[in-house]
Write a structure and sequence with these properties.
Strand content: 35-45%
CATH topology of the largest domain: Methylamine Dehydrogenase, Chain H
Number of helices: 2
Radius of gyration: 21 Å
Oligomer: single chain
CATH superfamily of the largest domain: YVTN repeat-like/Quinoprotein amine dehydrogenase
Structural class: mainly beta
Distance between the termini: 24 Å
CATH architecture of the largest domain: 7 Propeller
Length: 428
């Protein structure tokens, strides 16, 4: 087993619990987590403690050089003991869904953060991973066992699959009429998306915490068995596997038939997606740190008439970002200004910024320039909350929400209006 470098106390606890998972001794969940992050391509959405915030990555009007960014709106649960860390799922019709540690899912208006009439069915444990939106159905992993399907308008349960040994910390994936998800019990499961019945499952011989990547009939998943694994959806079996230096948590990314991912020993890998032959691997021995989140792929613009270059960016517990040439693995830059805290979240790219969350409230969200690794801006959570709560005319909506009683579980037969997508849709 690998030991994470200099993690916080709760990360030590989580690692020990995961070791228990791997040795089949139990499956409790960690008490806390890092802020969840997602994007709709224009705004950044963050779930943290009992609040969900939308961050505008554009500078404040009239201050184009400002190094800070603001909350557009804040949705706040009345009970500050109900914490949310799942990456928010944003629908095309203006709703943001976030799972919580009180076993429920909450729905907020995309425009102002107000709670919608959605009244979520309560599961049996914390919601760790992001929700999947598909038509009028919401698929959510259960912290203790399996996944459930909820009516996206009312929150009532359509079905609940609990035939797993341990919980689901990732986001389900929909391909055609089949729902796929990874579990801490080492298996990838395939379910009928409409009624939740099991089609097949595959043992990957290691706990899977991250969301697999779907590409061309294959699911690529990292495991705590120190492997990256490829599973064929047609053959229902493992078709490739690669041994890594440490546990693999984050979702891999792909470009030009090359698979990129990091591990908890601080290595970044580039594999041929078809053969699983290693193209390159890199780490930073001077700034060692586990790589937990999904990497980011973007372009480094050419200078003096040259060609643009594909780069892959990794964030680590060392508090630094590293950008590598996607083709050769050569180091392009290391962030000149470190983050205030460990980088645990997925990385997202909007324009020339790579954006992530940290464990520091003074830098809840940070953005670094993809071209040179310099810090572009940040969001100070404490300062923003003070600004919002003390302003005479608050520039954002701060809405305190008292959850309604739990919605009744639907006893009707599952509807056929799921409208499964033809390709996979996923988030954390």
């Amino acid at each position: 087993m690998s030991v994470l470098p200099r993690p916080r106390q709760w990360l030590y606890g989580a690692a020990l619990l995961l070791i228990l998972l791997l040795t089949s001794c139990g499956a409790p969940l960690p008490g806390e987590s890092w802020p969840g992050i997602s994007t709709d391509g224009q705004f950044v959405y963050v779930a943290y403690h009992n609040r969900v915030m939308r961050v505008n990555p554009a500078p404040p009007p009239g201050d184009e050089r400002s190094p800070v960014r603001r909350f557009d709106w804040i949705g706040q649960l009345a009970d500050d003991k109900i914490h949310m860390y799942a990456p928010p799922a944003v629908s095309a019709d203006g709703i943001v869904y976030v799972g919580a540690y009180d076993h429920k899912v909450y729905a907020f208006s995309l425009t102002n953060g107000l709670l919608t009439t959605f009244n979520s069915d309560a599961g049996n444990d914390k919601v760790i991973g992001g929700a999947l939106i598909a038509g009028d159905t919401l698929y959510v992993g259960n912290g203790d066992k399996g996944v459930r399907a909820l009516d996206r308008r009312t929150g009532a349960r359509r079905w609940n699959f609990t035939d797993t040994r341990y919980g689901v910390w990732s986001t389900p994936i929909l391909v055609g009429d089949t729902l796929y998800f990874a579990s801490l019990d080492h298996f990838i499961y395939a379910l009928d998306a409409v009624n939740g019945t099991l089609k097949w499952k595959v043992d990957l011989n290691g706990a899977i915490a991250g969301t697999p990547l779907y590409e061309k009939g294959i699911l690529y998943a990292g495991t705590f068995g120190n492997e990256m694994v490829a599973v064929s959806l047609e053959r229902h079996e493992i078709v490739n596997r690669y041994a890594t230096q440490g546990w693999v948590w984050g979702t891999p990314v792909m470009l030009n038939d090359t698979l990129y991912f990091g591990d908890l020993n601080g290595w970044v890998y580039a594999l041929d997606a078809s053969t699983f032959k290693l193209k390159w691997q890199k780490n930073d021995p001077e700034r060692p740190g586990a790589i937990r989140g999904k990497l980011a792929l973007t372009k480094l613009r050419a200078k003096d008439g040259g060609s643009d270059k594909d780069i892959v960016i990794a964030g680590s517990e060392s508090k630094y970002l590293h950008a590598y040439d996607a083709q050769t693995g050569d180091l392009v830059w290391t962030s000149a200004i470190s983050a205030n805290e460990q980088v645990l979240s997925d990385l997202i790219v909007i324009g020339d910024d790579v954006i992530f969350t940290t464990l520091s409230e003074s830098q809840l969200v940070a953005a670094f320039n993809t071209q040179n690794g310099q810090k572009s801006w940040e969001v100070n959570y404490t300062s923003e909350m003070t600004r919002v709560q003390t302003a005479t005319n608050p520039p954002v909506t701060l809405t305190t929400i008292t959850p309604a009683p739990t919605a009744a579980v639907s006893t009707a037969a599952p509807t056929a209006a799921v409208s499964p997508a033809s390709t996979a849709t996923s988030q954390q």
